[in-house]
Design a protein that fits this description.
The longest helix is centred in the N-terminal third of the chain and has 50 residues. Helices cover 81% and strands 0% of the residues. It has one domain. Helix 2 runs antiparallel to helix 6 and helix 2 packs parallel to helix 7. The chain is an all-alpha fold and 260 residues long.
Length: 260
């Protein structure tokens, strides 16, 4: 199973159950040590447990900084792409009449395709929209090249080609950031291992102090699960909990349709 395809709610439930099981395993092991009257100082175990939990918090904070930075980048790229496409739209006014109309229709189709592809949750539909975007980019580039050959010394043509090139570049930047930039699997693995050890230490420490099982363990499990769920959902391509607003692109599409 692809880890990124797990629903966020299911992941949170899985983490809660796993943490409760780990705490219980640590508790039972600690109880076994406690019943054997094996000498063990509570202060030492408490200190180690505190260190482990502090390291877990550090790894979580480090992971959050990665997903938060990427989240902010995705939001800024939406605004930047809409501004670049708007520039291409305006500079296309200097093209001959037939090419200008064709270019503007292609730009409308391009932005519409981008929005549909971004808002869908189906990977096949996303890939299909990317293919269509590449085809539109090629058509726009062909028009630019044809007009550039007619007037090789035109500064206006050069400015249009520059804007079109920027539009294509930022498209692939957004694709790279959204589809392929993820929290490395090694970090997730380290985080899971440390959470495993930390939760077992919590149960173990509770047992050797002679304490009974506490309902607070469930609260602890839910707290960790919510944090992991937040990190996971911010790292996904799309999540209803942390959506990337496409308002700049939608406003651009409305503007282009009203000014065709």
């Amino acid at each position: 199973m692809n880890f990124s395809k797990i629903p966020v709610g299911l992941l949170i439930i899985m983490v809660i159950v796993a943490i409760i099981i780990l705490i219980e395993a640590g508790y039972r092991f600690g109880k076994m040590i406690f019943l054997k009257r094996t000498p063990e100082k509570d202060g030492v175990v408490s200190s180690i447990s505190g260190y482990v939990l502090a390291l877990i918090a550090f790894i979580m904070a480090f992971t959050f900084s990665i997903v938060s930075s990427r989240y902010d980048t995705k939001k800024s790229l939406v605004r930047e792409e809409s501004n670049i496409i708007r520039t291409v739209w305006f500079r296309s006014d200097f093209l001959p009449d037939s090419d200008r109309v064709a270019t503007k229709r292609l730009l409308i189709s391009y932005v519409d395709t981008r929005l549909v592809g971004i808002q869908t949750k189906n990977e096949a539909a996303i890939e299909e929209s990317l293919v269509k975007c590449r085809q539109i980019q090629q058509l726009l580039w062909n028009i630019a090249v044809a007009n550039g050959h007619k007037d090789l010394n035109s500064d206006v043509a050069a400015l249009y080609v520059e804007a079109l090139n920027d539009m294509i570049t930022i498209h692939y930047t957004r694709v790279g950031v959204s589809l392929y930039a993820r929290v490395p699997g090694g970090i997730w693995l380290i985080l899971m291992i440390m959470v495993t050890l930390g939760m077992m230490m919590v149960g173990y420490m509770s047992a050797i102090t002679g304490s009974n099982r506490s309902w607070a363990f469930i609260i602890l499990a839910m707290t960790f699960a919510m944090v992991v769920g937040m990190l996971y959902t911010m790292d996904k391509l799309y999540s209803p909990f942390t959506p990337i607003s496409q308002l700049p692109m939608q406003q651009l599409l409305d503007f282009m349709r009203s000014n065709l």
